Amino acid sequence: MSRFEFSHATIDPTALARALVDPSCGGYASFEGWVRDLNEGRAVHRLEYEAFEELAVREGERIVAEACARFGVRNARCVHRIGDLPLGEIAVWVGVSAPHRDEAFRACRYIIDEVKHRVPIWKKEHYVDGDSGWVNCERCATAPQHTHHDHAQGHDHHDHAHHDHAHHDHAQHQPHPSHAPVASDYSRQTALREVGAAGQARLRASRVAVVGAGGLGVPVLQYLAGAGVGHLTVIDGDRLEASNLHRQTWYALADCGQPKAALAAARITALNPEVQVTTHTERLDAANGARLLAGHDLVVDCSDNFATKFLLNDLAHELGTRVLFASVHQFEGQLQSVDPARGGACLRCLWPEATRDGVVGNCAEAGVLGPVPGVLGSLQALEAMKILLDLPERLGDELLLVGLSDLGISRLAAKRAAECQGRGCARSSSALAATRQRPKASLELDFDDLAQAVAAGYAVIDIRDPAESAADPLPAYARRIPMAELLTGSNLPADGRYLLVCARGQRSRSTCEALRERGIDEAWSLRGGAQGLAARA
């Protein structure tokens, strides 16, 4: 039985209540919203409802499930009328059965408040002297405030019914200049023919996961939250650093040291309280990826490393979820959309093996001007909204290349790999299986200074570029072998013990992985690199 549904016929509350009877429940609460004969001082003779049913039912089911989980109720159901309703007819009915009355009352209130606020339903008041035109009900309701507190543990066994009317005061009062508006206003985007009320309903019903809340993630989250995407999940295991702020301008200097995911969630809520936010202050990996991304309509990759990007590509095929990728290198960036349902090209069609992190420098290693990831993130947000709204001319099997030095944009065709026929991706499936089977072993060691490493029997190798090494030299006993030389084949004895040092520890970790694959089992990376060493001095 569906927990949320629409009815074209008259609602029978007695029959609906009978279906919720549970001998283990001592509390029952119901809400009935009736069509009344007066609204905003004007005589009404009937009411009309329409809904974007597919999206509305999905959101309604989520709301009832949330109420059951939050308040510990056994069963709940909501039925909403659509079509023409005469005076006195029930427009919406909610019923809840729970062990105790308190849970039943609160769950019932939660469901009706959230349905009014979140479900894409439109109504038209048919007045004696004319009609109201179609009004989006969710725009008429002030955002409900639901606090988290302990459930009452009473044992009263009564039939509790709460009755109210379907109509409320929907006058469009202008807020006083000194007060914030009571609801988000999407009028500028719904004025577009391509969006409209139906498009806004699609955004409201969408769930988007954003992996990374940094230079790319900040503009993506800002624009998706501002646009009214219903649920945003933020996944980022990093904490804010002062060096982030020139490009991650959503945050403040006082925020340094705080988890980026939590900071982003607070900014989203301040920008648009209507958006539901879930945060994960952990790094996405092969073990937790499917769990964190399940149930989303779109994943937006705003990460800064190849390992995460290729993992997201592989998870996209496993989950059947679209992923929108972006990456930045100095003054350049690129976008690619992967849609497993379309059966097009993916990351592994272009690069069968993931590029090792550190081979191409990230922002910390290679440098970046703040607006560059801002531009690419804004393009990601635009493309994400085109996907959610099902607009034409979205990215297909192609790579969008953006050069911000000369403001050049080009598209490169991306061809699907020959071995990937039909749905799915053979390369992604095998890569994900291998990743999950591979034991997670740390390749990093901690030392307060390099003399300790030498005393412990490690040969210290500085893998930074010559210019980096000259600007911040290591002690004379550190051997200089640039990363590129090590990766192309250096004759290090296989039985040696090596501690690799780069600027921050990322390139050295990737190089250790490559060396171990070549049989050098005692290749280790200095955690935090030369910068971490200086910070501990």
Verbal overview:
There is one protein chain. By secondary structure, this protein is α/β, with parallel strands linked by helices. It folds into 3 domains: about 5-165, Molybdopterin biosynthesis MoaE subunit (Aldehyde Oxidoreductase, domain 3); about 190-435, NAD(P)-binding Rossmann-like Domain (Rossmann fold); about 445-535, 3-Layer(aba) Sandwich (Oxidized Rhodanese, domain 1), CATH 3.40.250. Helices cover about 35% and strands about 25% of the residues. The protein is built from 19 helices and 25 strands. The strands form 4 sheets. It has an 8-stranded mixed sheet with strand order 15-14-13-16-17-18-19-20, sandwiched between helices. Strands 1, 2, 5, 7, 11 and 12 form a 6-stranded mixed sheet that branches. A hairpin with a 2-residue loop joins strand 8 (about 120-125) and strand 9 (about 130). It starts with a strand and ends with a helix.
Labels describing this entry:
537 residues; eight-stranded mixed sheet; Rossmann fold; Oxidized Rhodanese, domain 1; 25 strands; single chain; 19 helices; alpha/beta; Aldehyde Oxidoreductase, domain 3; 3 domains
**What structural class is derived from the secondary structure elements?**
alpha/beta
**Proportion in helices:** 25-40%
Q: Give the overall average pLDDT.
A: 82
What is the CATH first-level class name of the largest domain? Answer: Alpha Beta
Largest sheet, if any?
8 strands, mixed
- Biggest sheet strand order reads 15-14-13-16-17-18-19-20
Topology-level CATH name of the largest domain: Rossmann fold
Radius of gyration: 28 Å
Q: How big a fraction of the residues is strand? A: 15-25%
